[in-house]
Write a structure and sequence with these properties.
This protein is an alpha+beta fold. The protein has helices at residues 9-58, 60-64, 68-76, 118-121, 124-133, 177-221, 241-303, 308-331, 344-360, 379-396, 427-430, 447-458, and strands at 93-98, 103-106, 141-144, 150-159, 162-172, 341-342, 364-369, 375-378, 402-409, 413-420, 462-468, 471-479. The protein starts with 8 loop residues before the first helix and ends in a 5-residue tail after the last strand.
Length: 484
């Protein structure tokens, strides 16, 4: 079962703001109605107070001369017709009590006969007596009895300091209902109009406010399954708390990407190192018997018979063994080969050596050698790196394609970039690119890049391969042991 606090913020924020607006609208409407009721009550008290004082002064003579008919005419004339919807301030009951709190005269003599106890006809007078008994001031006072449908305006009738009786005017609360309903209707229409305008705006701004949180939650939900690329993460950017949270999340993603990349490099380095140690060990074990077999063939040729069939057979065996020796030799990479420091001419020689292969394939070769000094790097190994990369680029380039090579010094490092416009290398192949015998090119054995990788890392450098459609580029950075 979905609970409210489990809803997304894109719905929770607009819903809460809508509920808040509804509550505000109801409170404002109720306040207007109660305010109107209070104003009506105050207007009634003011009007009845003036009328009560006038009637009380006029009723002094009828009470003094015990003239109920005159008193009846006095109290009935101002309220002839009773309370109405158009005039809610017309009294529904007017009564004059004598000094003994008995009915002297009333506008409804059938319910309140003369000299009767009014509390027998209307239980409101039980509580009304308590208020009347305590009130001896000449001013009119409003009295509301609990549970009654009427408001009573009580005015003492006093002459020469002696209380002759009490004037009671009763006003029905129902007479105010039409006015209340009218106010409530108008307030409801105004509230409805305001809600029609504010609710869509509330949902719009609620969605806008929640969107950064929703995007952040969705991006965080992807962590674990994958680490999203920077372009796939679109977060709210600002200096407020949500913006700061988004910026911190982006920094965390960048750290995770760097960690993932480092882990891949470490795993690749460990795998290549293990493969290298295995290949070198196998190569050493093969080289000894291989050399013995080649020596045996050489001895047989010098001291054996001249059988033509045997000679042809030994030639085939020798070519096969030489090919095996060349392959095994490629697996034996020694970083401590004694050679002179790298010169500009050494670099130019590599270009000359591979130019023939480029011409044979009609490849357009762009060559840039920016080294004009001698660099403290073993020339033999650096030349091997350059030749391997350029030959690999030429072989991978299409016929009449393009290859470029740039060699230059950058601070205390030698930087080599070799690229071609050959086929795109997918990511799954990139992870095994520098492993031996991993080449998928026809006629290739995959040792060139592996040897290059081994040499670069033995020299303390770094090699990076990048491939996009129509361009594959290898970048080698070799640190200089000392200033040239």
């Amino acid at each position: 079962m979905l609970r409210l606090h489990d809803l997304s913020f894109r719905y929770k924020i607009p819903l809460r703001s809508s509920v808040l607006m509804l509550i505000t609208a109801l409170v404002v409407t109720a306040s207007l109605i109660f305010r109107e009721y209070d104003e009506l009550r105050q207007d009634l008290a003011t009007t009845s107070g003036h009328l009560g004082r006038v009637l009380a002064n006029t009723l002094v003579a009828p009470l003094t001369h015990d003239d109920p008919w005159r008193a009846y005419e006095i109290i009935n004339s101002p309220f002839h017709g009773g309370a109405s919807e158009s005039n809610p301030q017309t009294a529904s009951l007017v009564m004059v009590l004598d000094a003994n709190q008995r009915v002297f005269v009333a506008t409804d003599p059938n319910q309140y006969p003369m000299l009767s106890d009014p509390s027998r006809a209307n239980t409101d007078f039980y509580e009304l007596w308590q208020a009347v008994a305590k009130y001896n001031e000449p001013d009119t006072r409003a009295v509301e009895v609990r549970g009654s449908k009427a408001i009573y305006m009580v005015t003492p009738i006093i002459s020469d300091g002696y209380r002759l009786g009490t004037l009671i005017m009763g006003y029905s609360k129902d007479a105010f209902l039409p006015r209340f309903f009218g106010i409530a209707k108008r307030a409801g229409l105004i509230t409805l109009a305001v809600l029609v305008l504010l609710l869509p705006a509330s949902w719009y701004w609620g969605q806008r406010f929640a969107k950064p949180l929703v995007d952040l939650a969705q991006s965080m939900g992807r962590i674990g399954k994958e680490i999203p690329d920077e372009g796939d993460v679109r977060l709210y950017e600002s200096k407020d708390e949500i913006g700061q949270l988004g910026a911190a999340f982006k920094n965390m993603l960048q750290g995770l990407r760097e960690k993932q990349s480092l882990e891949r490099e470490v795993m690749l380095s460990e795998r290549l190192a293990a493969v290298g140690r295995l290949a070198a060990g196998v190569a050493h074990e093969i080289n000894n018997p291989l050399g013995g077999m080649l020596n045996a063939i050489s001895t047989y040729r010098r001291h054996g018979n001249d059988d033509p069939l045997a000679a042809r057979t030994l030639s085939l065996v020798e070519r096969g063994l030489v090919q095996i020796k060349d392959t095994v030799s490629a697996l034996l990479v020694e970083s401590k080969v004694q050679s002179h420091y790298l010169t500009r001419q050494d670099i130019e020689d590599t270009h000359t050596l591979v130019q023939t292969d480029a011409n044979r394939k009609l490849v357009r070769f762009e060559w840039r050698n920016g080294v004009d000094e001698t660099l403290p790097l073993p020339s033999t190994l650096v030349r091997q790196v350059l030749i391997n990369l350029m030959l690999n680029a030429i072989q991978a380039a299409p016929r009449e394609g393009a290859v470029e090579c740039q060699v230059e010094r950058e601070g205390q490092a030698l930087r080599v970039q070799v690229g071609n416009n050959g086929d795109y290398i997918p990511q799954e192949r990139m992870e095994h690119l520098f492993e031996p015998f991993s080449s998928q090119r026809e006629g290739g054995h995959g040792l060139g890049l592996w040897v290059t990788y081994q040499i670069v890392h033995q020299l303390g450098g770094e090699i990076v391969a990048e491939s996009v459609p129509d361009e594959t580029r290898f970048t080698v950075t070799l640190p200089l042991a000392e200033a040239a």
